[in-house]
Amino acid sequence: MAGGGIGPTKGGKEYPGKLTARVLLTCMVAATGGLIFGYDLGVSGGVTSMDSFLKKFFPEVYIKESTIKPSDDQYCKFDSQKLTLFTSSLYLAARVVSLCINCAQYLWMLVVGRILLGFGIGCANQSVPIYVSEVAPYKYRGALNMMFQLSITIGILAAGVINYFFAEIKGGWGWRLSLGGAAVPAIMIMIGALVLPETPNSLVERGKNEEAKSQLLKIRGVANVDEEFDDLVAASDASKLVKHPWETLLTKKYRPQLVFALAIPAFQQLTGMNVITFYAPVLFKTMGFGSSASLMSTVITNAVNAVATLVSIFTVDKVGRRTLFIEGGAQMFLTQVIIGIAIAVKFGVSGNPGELSKGFVDGLLACICVYVAGFAWSWGPLGWLVPSEIFPLEVRSAAQSINVATNMIFTFVIAQVFTTMLCHLKFGLFFFFAFWVLIMNILIYKYLPETKGVPIEDMHTIWQKHPFWKKYVLQDKGIAMGKEGHDDV
């Protein structure tokens, strides 16, 4: 089968528009919604490696971890479903309660607090990518949308730095400050939400056409937006014919987009990146790093994550989504295989590494950094960008809900079973994730068309021209933009 690498539609529409300061500031404010997600991704792994935290809530894990000998099996010393539930519970609900978590006295208080905190994260992950995609000029949509991922990485980095310093607080209460710190990005999100303007798409949907056109003129910074505005109105009119967007989403003409709304977030988690994000300190301690060294190593990988995301921001609208997906996937696959082989040679099946040399530890950290960089400029930001831009208006909100729900479900599962997988699969865990990275790269190469430079309201054309998906998509432009047909599910 031919690859799916068609470029932007030739002869497609090119709406006028500049990268105005108004748009840039608006997208930056909206993207702060990723800070709380990133912070909570990064903070849990740090506090679960703090002895004072383990003593209070997971004494059995603390006893196992503190009494294990270098000659014992290192793979299983953190294997605890209760411990992973603390991390994974956030994604069952995925702000208001962030201040309450740092006052927790019992495990159930931690879990309930993180479940409630997940509601705020779920709302942010649902709304921010769509909001930015609708506000941004299509030529800069990729870079501006990736500010959301950049905010996530900044939140992760901030959590790592805070964990490192708070772990040194005497009295063993630094973990409370780490968890309570989630209140800061929560407050930022609430303030930002009060000042953000409505998108033209949203205004048109509510019948405020004059206000929508005025807003479109402001954010595009040009004197004439008639063509884009007319297409927005046409898309809105078509969307109103769709009475049941969830049912419509299952029809054949949306089959291509639906596949990727499910596959991309699932594969994003099957890269294994969130294992690094959640449990980096735990993973580094398993590999022989000391407590302080494991937290510092986490800060290093988090910094690489944030810097590498900038690479994606500056290149995504030039080299395209497919190129970054495939290159990043290849980079992650190779480094995971190398890491798996290195751990297999040193730790073996027994989990007894003996004495670890500085060269081995430094090399392992370097490989993890290369892996993190590959994710940070590919599957990390693109996992949010592509699903938010490929759906037409009439099913966009429903589709983004599926995207976020799939992401949260797989995040929960990976977070919950990681320590058990590490205990049983041992070094094979890295080969497990490498396998899925290979599969997802094949999927992208064969089936994902390039969306770079395609106006969001003209996105249906890329599926009509794709060698595989065109048989699912109705060729009539009017129908493809939203008029309900009677094709089979």
TrEMBL record:
<comment type="similarity">
    <text>Belongs to the major facilitator superfamily. Sugar transporter (TC 2.A.1.1) family.</text>
</comment>
<feature type="transmembrane region" description="Helical">
    <location>
        <begin position="173"/>
        <end position="196"/>
    </location>
</feature>
<feature type="transmembrane region" description="Helical">
    <location>
        <begin position="19"/>
        <end position="39"/>
    </location>
</feature>
<dbReference type="InterPro" id="IPR044778">
    <property type="entry name" value="MFS_STP/MST-like_plant"/>
</dbReference>
<dbReference type="GO" id="GO:0015293">
    <property type="term" value="F:symporter activity"/>
</dbReference>
<feature type="transmembrane region" description="Helical">
    <location>
        <begin position="115"/>
        <end position="132"/>
    </location>
</feature>
<keyword id="KW-0762">Sugar transport</keyword>
<feature type="transmembrane region" description="Helical">
    <location>
        <begin position="361"/>
        <end position="380"/>
    </location>
</feature>
<dbReference type="Pfam" id="PF00083">
    <property type="entry name" value="Sugar_tr"/>
</dbReference>
<dbReference type="InterPro" id="IPR005829">
    <property type="entry name" value="Sugar_transporter_CS"/>
</dbReference>
<feature type="transmembrane region" description="Helical">
    <location>
        <begin position="429"/>
        <end position="448"/>
    </location>
</feature>
<keyword id="KW-0813">Transport</keyword>
<keyword id="KW-0472">Membrane</keyword>
<keyword id="KW-0812">Transmembrane</keyword>
<keyword id="KW-0769">Symport</keyword>
<dbReference type="GO" id="GO:0015145">
    <property type="term" value="F:monosaccharide transmembrane transporter activity"/>
</dbReference>
<feature type="domain" description="Major facilitator superfamily (MFS) profile">
    <location>
        <begin position="1"/>
        <end position="452"/>
    </location>
</feature>
<dbReference type="InterPro" id="IPR003663">
    <property type="entry name" value="Sugar/inositol_transpt"/>
</dbReference>
<feature type="transmembrane region" description="Helical">
    <location>
        <begin position="144"/>
        <end position="166"/>
    </location>
</feature>
<dbReference type="InterPro" id="IPR020846">
    <property type="entry name" value="MFS_dom"/>
</dbReference>
<feature type="transmembrane region" description="Helical">
    <location>
        <begin position="400"/>
        <end position="422"/>
    </location>
</feature>
<dbReference type="GO" id="GO:0016020">
    <property type="term" value="C:membrane"/>
</dbReference>
<feature type="transmembrane region" description="Helical">
    <location>
        <begin position="258"/>
        <end position="283"/>
    </location>
</feature>
<dbReference type="InterPro" id="IPR036259">
    <property type="entry name" value="MFS_trans_sf"/>
</dbReference>
<protein>
    <recommendedName>
        <fullName>Major facilitator superfamily (MFS) profile domain-containing protein</fullName>
    </recommendedName>
</protein>
<feature type="transmembrane region" description="Helical">
    <location>
        <begin position="328"/>
        <end position="349"/>
    </location>
</feature>
<dbReference type="InterPro" id="IPR005828">
    <property type="entry name" value="MFS_sugar_transport-like"/>
</dbReference>
<dbReference type="InterPro" id="IPR045262">
    <property type="entry name" value="STP/PLT_plant"/>
</dbReference>
<keyword id="KW-1133">Transmembrane helix</keyword>
<feature type="transmembrane region" description="Helical">
    <location>
        <begin position="295"/>
        <end position="316"/>
    </location>
</feature>
